Amino acid sequence: MQTQDRLTQKQPLSLKDAITASQNYLLSLQYPQGYWWAELESNITLTAETVLLHKIWGTDKTRPLHKVEAYLRQQQREHGGWELFYGDGGEISTSVEAYMALRLLGVPQDDPALIRAKDFIISKGGISKTRIFTKFHLALIGCYDWKGIPSIPPWIMLFPDSFPFTIYEMASWARESTVPLIIVFNDKPVFSVDPVFNLDELYAEGVENVKYELPKNNNWGDIFLGIDQVFKFAEQVDLVPFRKEGLKAAEKWILNHQQETGDWGGIMPPMLNSLLAFRTLNYDVNDPSVKLGFEAIDRFSIEEDDTYRLQACVSPIWDTAWCVRALTDSGLEKDHFSLVKAGKWLLDKQVMEYGDWAVKNKAGKPGGWAFEFTNRFYPDLDDSATVVMALNGIKLPDEARKQAAINRCLQWIETMQCKEGGWAAFDLNNDQAWLNEVPYGDLKAMIDPNTADVTARVVEMLGSCDLEIESDRLNKSLNYLYKEQEKDGSWFGRWGVNYIYGTSGVLSALAVINPEKHKTQMEQGINWLLSCQNKDGGWGETCRSYNDPSLKGKGVSTPSQTAWSLIGLLDAGEALNKFETDAIERGVNYLLDTQTEEGTWEESEFTGTGFPCHFYIRYHFYRHYFPLIALGRYQNLSSEFGVRS
């Protein structure tokens, strides 16, 4: 179980004492095995969907689901709805799923919390305005009609690798979620649950007036609406070609992709969907694959005295690598026993098996790192580059083993470069953008193209660790970063919120690869960061900047986003031998002034990104290690600044 402490305010310390306090706090959180690991907080939907899953399987009495009610009530806001991210004003799909879960838990329709929720949901257009996946979960219990859910033809499982489209053109997360849904969408099951209820009260137009149809985008993508009608007709007249073969291939794929830890892809949506597929196929609740799957979900749960909730994922490798970097950047000895323990743990976690990435990458050998404790199918580039930098910064008893692991990872990373010159999160050339237009893909997250932030991480790894790849590949990656720079000098952040994250990362990358060559690009990035510093000295950016670019770089100051800005400005300033002293010192003072008594920082805002515009994450360690990195790098350059004594 992981819990976030509520911390108290204190008088600001000197820089040295603040760093020591932060280091001690981080060191106190290290697990005996050597890793660090904190909660990944998201919205309530995965918890709500887990309640639904247990109700469908009849396993709801074997978990403390009664505590979910307290959690959902705690998360409801004054307006009656539930949020995608902190302070967003409420979101309709999230709110409908919370309402559904409370009804599944036996809360009556006339409960004051549900009355307020109903008013909020109706004001936003009701169930008919929710996302496809919300409607899908409602359809499973008869609260929405399957006619309004898109079809997924099973025969897509049978396409050969040489075909223009296969399931491997979907992003890893979309692929892992879609394959089990092929089975569920084929059968269109409606499961009986206890208590029995409907959600007719949540249809703004009245349940008798609902049009169970897929929403139009009013662009070329609407052609898929017609194609979906063809698929549905083929289903009705039982003329779906290779239906049985496709379903069998999907079942086999799910079984083969279940990890020894019981999960699929290391993330909750495929875990939930795979267990729904097993239920649709009438697997026994005691089947080994089913039991392993539920045990994996249990490990993603957080139970406290009164509440129970689910995480979207777990992040021990990511957290550990960044904690190591923070401690070394802030002056901890490279052979400190805590760093040695962490380094050994990270070495043991290197992925040495071929995963899904090998379907399109025929040249690479495995050698990356994943995000979770175990994820042999999906190591990722961002984690791998970060782990390499963490290992490079410490001294281990077996340096030869460490260097061999770094070299093996470098070879894998080099072969994962996309044709545009950048790197993606999990796959190679996963860029068929038309997939985001299919009705099923209404989260617009069906592909995993190369991005500036992941590319920057790889380039920073190359420069900071003195590693080499083919010069043509390096130049191609730099040209990609040039191309991705916005007119105002910023870079988009795919995996962190948002332009502050992207801009900081690229500045740190360009700073360690012949920086004079990139002086113009770096100065433009620096000027953009300066333009969005808040009056209190910090930086912040709302998740809404993904929907509205006019909000880029705007938001209440947060420790993590302030730290990112400082890291970018410090790295770029050192590379160009020109520091923006006033802005940097104001940012550092913001961190010193807001540090808590325990040596960390408070942060309610969500600064991590899952799917832009649709899914955000509050990494509970971001407010710990990124400020420490910023203060550590500032201390290392103390001769350039008037450091607070």
Automatic annotation (TrEMBL):
Residues 314-636 form the Squalene cyclase C-terminal domain. GO terms for cellular component: lipid droplet. Keywords: Isomerase, Repeat. One of its GO terms (molecular function) is squalene-hopene cyclase activity. It holds the Pfam family SQHop_cyclase_N. Pathway: Secondary metabolite biosynthesis; hopanoid biosynthesis. Its EC number is 5.4.99.17. Residues 19-305 form the Squalene cyclase N-terminal domain. This is Squalene--hopene cyclase. It comes from Crocosphaera watsonii WH 0003.
